[in-house]
Design brief:
With about 325 residues, this protein is an alpha/beta fold. The chain folds into three domains: about 1-60, 434 Repressor (Amino-terminal Domain), CATH 1.10.260.40; about 65-165 and about 295-325, Rossmann fold; about 165-290, Response regulator (Rossmann fold, 3-Layer(aba) Sandwich). It contains 13 helices and twelve strands. It has helices spanning about 1-15, 20-25, 35-45, 50-60, 75-90, 105-115, 130-140, 165-180, 195-210, 225-240, 250-265, 280-285, 295-310, and strands at about 65-70, 95-100, 120-125, 145, 160-165, 185-190, 220, 245-250, 275, 290, 320, 325. The strands form two sheets. The protein has a six-stranded parallel β-sheet, with helices on both faces. Strands 7-6-8-9-10-12 form a six-stranded mixed β-sheet, sandwiched between helices. Helix 1 crosses helix 2 (about 20-25) and helix 10 (about 225-240) crosses helix 11. The radius of gyration is 26 Å and the shape is elongated.
Length: about 325
Amino acid sequence: MVEKMSIKLISEMTGISYATVARALSGNGYCSKEKRDIIAKAAEEIHYHPNLSARTLRNNRTEKILLGIPDICNAFYFRMIEGITEELDKVGYYPIIFNTRHLLDKELKLIDLLSQRYADGLIFVSFNFTEENIGAIRRTNLPVVLTNRYEGIRRDDNFDFVYSDHTAGMEKLTEYILGCGCKDILLLAGNESEQTSLERVQGYKNILQKHNIPVREEYILNGEFRTEPAHDAFGAFMQSGRPVDAVITANELMFMGVMRYMTEHHIDLNAFRMASFDNTDFSRNLSVTSLDLKQDEIGRNAVRLLMERIDGKRTESKQVYLMPELIVRKT
């Protein structure tokens, strides 16, 4: 109703017919450049903005992208969000961020929002792809980009993926730590039933096996990718009395848990080599050796893949692979 009143007012101000004003403002149908300029000036004078819902109906676009993140408080995702928003700005889109809290039911709710056309596409961050969440994505028949590898992707799928190679990244990090002369290397990762953790643990094992070093399962801890569980798991390991000369954490939240335990128990932070994944401001400010997973590039590539689908430039699935970069610092 407000939009119709605005169009009527502009028509009265300019003496141009209602139908012509409506065509000019919607961009649909013919309107001469002379009249279009007059209408645009009048619209600016009354601070008229086209109704978003009406524009969505006309263009079949919401100009929004859903972004599902497992932990909105994890600094790892900040650079990814930055890359996504900067790329979306270029095409006049904006993100709606949804915190899935690492829960399948929340992921399915997010996918359902896409199927209801709350947005034109979805960037989906998940630690574990299952028949349920992938099946739900396929049923939407709308553009989706995963930010991890999915080996079951089909050529005609409605989704793509951008993947920073977790296994190769952990191999780089473990190789570096071994090169520092360390042998008793403790790894804090997540639940190995989940893809992200499994891939990172596999990289650690690959390098130990390459150098004929036995893989000791007791040196692989489940820190759940969170600070508190990592603090407790690391504490239990330290109390066991097993030797350790290096600690690798598969994300920075777990690194924080390890540091907190060491501080609480007056363990010198230089007692052994320490390294982490993520390379956020935390690593940089504390001069921690870290693996940069190219989070901003993941975000930028995800938007580009989505827009190719949304703009009708591509229907077949596509994959983008990125190689993590090892950033060596003092620790």
